[in-house]
Amino acid sequence: MAASSAKPAVAFDARQHLTGLLRSALASVAPAQGLADIVLERPKQASHGDFASNLAMQLARELKTAPRQIAERLVRELPASPHVTKVDIAGAGFINFTLTPAARSAVVATVLTAGDDFGRGVARTGRMTRRLQVEFVSANPTGPLHVGHGRGAAYGASLASLLAFAGYEVTREYYVNDAGRQMDILAVSTWLRYLELFDEPIAFPPNAYQGGYVREMAEQIKQAHGDRYVHPAEAVLACVPETDDIEARLDGFILAGKDLLGEDWAYVHSHVLSEQLADCRADLEEFGVHFDVWFSERSLYDTGMVARAVAKLEKSGHIYTQDGAKWFQSTAFGDEKDRVVQRDNGIYTYFASDIAYHLNKFERGFDKVIDVWGADHHGYIPRVKGALLASGADATKLDVTLVQFVSLFRDGQKVSMSTRSGEYVTLRQLRQEVGNDACRFFYMLRKCDQALDFDLDLAKSQSNDNPVYYVQYAHARICSVLAQWEGDAATLTTADLSPLQNESEFALCSRLAEYPELVQAAARDYAPHSLAFYLKDLAGDFHSWYNAERVLVDDVATRAARLALALATRQVLRSGLSLLGVSQPMSM
To answer: 14-99 falls under which CATH superfamily?
Structure first.
């Protein structure tokens, strides 16, 4: 193959170029296999070149020929390229390509020319089409968000940003569980605490909401309305059954509240809902997590969507009645047992509203719906998908990702996540201790379906062992170098890159070139954690180069080339950190 010192164009794409060379060779060697997938990977060892292809191994079965022989034939038919300096055959038949120095460093100009658009994709057909909805967090508004909710928030927000950057139209949605028993429990918990403020002796139910925030809401009601909602303890207890069944007793307190307060019950219910929902919104906004839609569960009932969803299942023949209740034949779709959708008292279950909600999502025209649930909801997946299938919906449009639990560690010891009083470690407390950036980045240091051990001491440390500090420090270092230079960064876009010649510089260039494909792969696999891993590697490559080579050297050409490489690295660091919701400090 003929090599040349000619510089590739600014928009040079090595992967695309090498794919074209192999495609041309394939047309000569095996025309019938002209549409075969061509995969290019970066070898783990630099001595094996810049890219490797296993195309020969892929063709071996069809051509009934040894892979190495096929590789030899392919290499002979490769067109000459001014961007390739060497092609080797390794092992059983890998084809290894080594690029020219100019081709290896061309990504720097590509990054600087594209700016914020480097790595940005265009939506592709396949697993996902254009309009996506990501629904995440969706915690009951019955108390402060805890650290587990925080992981779901960080994951969902990063995933949505990644999908949008990859080229999809993304809607971020929070499903507000503002109907049903849990909200009634919060309302009655607050009312009972309110009665305590007026010395009405009622033993607080052990299964009611225990947190201090409940007492705070009770105090708010007292301050605003005085004793308006006070009823004697005797009247309240008269409505509560004497039983060891604590759930039955709690339901008795709820009935007492509704009966004694009458229309005023709606105020108490509305107050606790608005207070907790506002607190949740504020907490998430402070965490850098934003939603386009806050969808009310209650609206599903008010508009008749729940009743219509159950009626649709009945019409399709997947509902039967037993003991006065309506049951969905969930076992026909892989669930472990059938599920009640309407109780014998006519009240619809949570499952019924969930069915209606997901049918509504599809009615809104999303091409793909992505739900982010806690790991304890694993068994819920087959029944929801089954209900969608039974309703005539395309259940393949629903993807569910599960977020595993979080454990906090301090001084090597596991931190208790809750107390006997019902208090637990909240997301707000975690953010106040370690900061938003550490929270967002540390939550992404494990794949979402793996349990996460969150090291509080490490998250607060200012050392290279702290991954978020390590990545942010790389960004700050580059900002410092550019500030010392005091030049016009715009001039670096057209800098001569030929002075970039050592392996640490080429390693950094190679890492930069991986970013667009990394973005697409992470979006495709719903894997924002891979972006966090990439940023750690990119920062490592930069620090290694920076520690080995001076950037602001006397030679003008070398200085400009190295500044361009540093600026391109800053651009990719900034882009990746932004997608993860992490700030990009200019100094540290």
So the answer is: Arginyl tRNA synthetase N-terminal domain (3.30.1360.70)
- Among residues 411, 146, 170, which one has the least CA distance to residue 290? 170
Nearest to 164 by CA among 175, 154, 156: 156
289-306 pLDDT tens trace: 999 999 999 999 999 999
Distances (CA, A) of 564 to 25, 310, 492, 511, 514: 36, 62, 5, 15, 18
Give 3-state DSSP helix, strand, coil % of the chain, rounded to 5: 55, 15, 35
Protein fold of 464-579: Isoleucyl-tRNA Synthetase; Domain 1 (1.10.730)
Picking from 242, 254, 231, 130, the residue whose alpha carbon sits closest to that of residue 183 is 254
Question: pLDDT > 70: what percent of the chain?
Answer: 96
Domain locations along the chain: 14-99, 130-297+404-455, 303-367+381-400, 464-579
Q: Are 51 and 18 in contact (CB under 8 A)?
A: yes
Give CA–CA dist 61/59, Å, rounded: 6
The CATH T-level fold of domain 130-297+404-455 is Rossmann fold (3.40.50)
pLDDT in tens, 368-389: 999 999 999 998 999 999 999 9
CA dist 259 to 240, 266, 489, Å?
A: 12, 11, 71
Are 163 and 172 contacting, i.e. CB atoms less than 8 angstroms apart?
Answer: no
Q: What is the DSSP letter of 203?
A: P
